[in-house]
Amino acid sequence: MSALPDAAAWRDAAARHGELFQALEAGARIGLVARAGQPTMLLWEAGDAGVEARAAPFAGFGACGADILLSADAEALGRIGEAVSGDLFRVLRADIRGGSIVCYLLRRRCDLEARGFDELLEALGFAFMGACR
To answer: Full-prediction pTM beyond 0.85?
Structure first.
């Protein structure tokens, strides 16, 4: 079973792809969990000083507090670990399309757009068309 990347590498990945995170409002959160049921998730959380990363307990979808949750199988976690210092979003997008990662949008589309997730969602392969308001 592959493990989640460490928090420092996850934070550095967000910094390398800063253009995807710059529009996020403070408190916006993206989580990564292992589909195998580990009780820990890795979080990107937007703040006033940029994006931070940390491990946090995963108590289930409703209680995790994330806006978006990525649930990866063991093979995808291995690919994420290899790509975390490179082209991470290409790997995330490909594994979402291939089914190795399930991307749960835990907020309504309008709420995600209002919180600044447009660029990040597009990088993950989700393009929204039309007005949602």
So the answer is: yes
DSSP 69: E
What CATH number does domain 7-121 carry, 1.10.4050, 3.40.1000, 3.30.1050, 3.90.550?
3.30.1050
Per-residue pLDDT of 22-33, as tens digits, reads 999 999 999 999
Alpha-carbon distances of 8 from 43, 71, 113, 128, rounded to whole Å: 11, 20, 27, 31
CB atoms within 10 A of CB 101: 23
SS3 54: strand
Classified as helix, coil or strand, 86 is coil
**Element (DSSP H or E) covering residue 29:** strand 29-34
> What is the DSSP track for 32-44?
EEETT--SEEEEE
Query: Cα angle vertex 99, ends 114, 93, to 5°?
Result: 50
CB under 8 A, 24+ apart: contacts of 55-62:
55/4, 55/7, 56/31, 58/31, 58/33, 61/104, 61/106
